[in-house]
Fold this sequence. Notes:
Among the domains are: 122-314, Rossmann fold, CATH 3.40.50.300; 316-411, GMP Synthetase, Chain A, domain 3 (2-Layer Sandwich). Helix content is 41%, strand content 18%. It contains 12 helices and 12 strands. The chain has helices at residues 2-30, 66-77, 84-105, 140-148, 195-209, 221-226, 230-240, 263-271, 292-302, 317-335, 370-377, 382-399, and strands at residues 126-133, 152-153, 166-172, 175-181, 214-220, 248-254, 278-283, 304-305, 314-315, 345-353, 359-367, 403-411. The strands form 3 sheets. Strands 1, 3, 4, 5, 6, 7 and 8 form a 7-stranded mixed beta sheet that branches. A hairpin with a 5-residue loop joins strand 10 (345-353) and strand 11 (359-367). Helix 5 (195-209) runs parallel beside helix 7 (230-240) and helix 10 (317-335) packs antiparallel against helix 12 (382-399). The site of guanosine-5'-triphosphate (GTP) has 18 residues, from helix 4.
Amino acid sequence: MRASFRALRLTSAATSSHIQPFFSLPLRLFSAETASDSDSPSNPDFGSSDYTLPSSPSQPNPRLDPYYRARADEALFGKKMQSPLQEEEERERATRLARSLLEAALEPPDDVAEGEDMVVREEDQMSLSAGIIGAPNAGKSSLTNFMVGTKVAAVSRKTNTTTHEILGVMTKGNTQICFFDTPGLMIGHHGYPAATDVRVRVESAWNTINLYDILIVIFDVHRHLTTRDRRVIQLIRLLGKEKQPEKKRILCMNKVDLVTDKKDLLKVAKEFNDLPGYDRYFMISGLKGAGVKDLEQYLMDQAVKRPWEEEPKVMTEEVMKNISLEVVRERMLDHIHQEIPYVIEHKLMGWKELRDGSIRIEQHFITQKQSQRQILVGKNGSKIGRIGIEANQELRSIFKRDVHLILQVRVAKRKGA
Ligand SMILES: Nc1nc2c(ncn2[C@@H]2O[C@H](COP(=O)(O)OP(=O)(O)OP(=O)(O)O)[C@@H](O)[C@H]2O)c(=O)[nH]1
């Protein structure tokens, strides 16, 4: 759109320069130029800005009957005679075109994201809380990260109605979607529960599901095709068994990018086709983004009129960098109880967001003496290793994504060395 407007401007500039010579001749005849051979603009003999001319007496525009004007136009320019009605229509069309061109020109630049800096009145706010359940490694975090975007939602809680772990917040236009990890259903980071456990967890989860507007049941379809897991199948079946409109559920077949024969996906879809509890089925790759747009649109459509729960602030990269420094420094202070932490310089040397959404962070500690370096590094690197592991874990949980933390300890170069 902007390109076309630019083209339009260029055309009009070209047109006016084209017209110029046509008018310059008669105008020169009447100009009040003093006689001079010099036409040089750097040394003008006459500049109209130096003179104030009396404004011409206002004359009413001579009015011509539209009928006679049309006839005169036809005689002079060969233009087809138009009725006043046709003229009116043409004027309207031209106005519409001009307006749409103006609107196109005024469109916000592409790099200003929709909804950014937009204040949405509370009465216009739409919300959706979505619980996500899946076995470990099903891809809950990757999917949330993809939808929430590269910016991490820095949530300052307004309400505290739930103690569930928040995975991320997506705010677009007037709609906010909060993604929660489901406790009780959290089969957790510690491995799969026993088969009997699944039933107990699902049963108890029904009570907590009421807290969400929708439950996203996610499973690794590639894994399902290669190593079927009875517990995962049981979970999917139990949650989709009954249709309960107030407990809306959807089933997401994740990691479709890993499935080479796409016909296999249809087989899996058929396998769970008989479950009336699921409102919709989605085939997605939460990591790569395939199918996520459809899922996102579906979720946006489910949002209800309700004030947002979270302030839609986003953690900028700058804030994330500072957090990374603070977390590492805190861990260092935990492990080094002597004076030296205060004389150690601590710098962020590298920050890179990798294609899989993880962040590579490189930080350097610069000590004054070799002995200080030795204390910080510890025996065979044990101390700095401990600091790194703990800080990495903490950063991973704050940023809700993988973090590759690299710490280096070096001795400051002596001046003049
Ligand atoms: N190829 C592929 N890999 C994926 C996809 N989604 C997630 N993964 C990978 O699967 C692994 C687990 O993903 P997570 O998003 O951490 O899974 P999770 O369900 O949050 O795992 P827990 O935190 O253990 O419950 C990671 O190595 C991801 O990179 C996907 O759509 N395609």
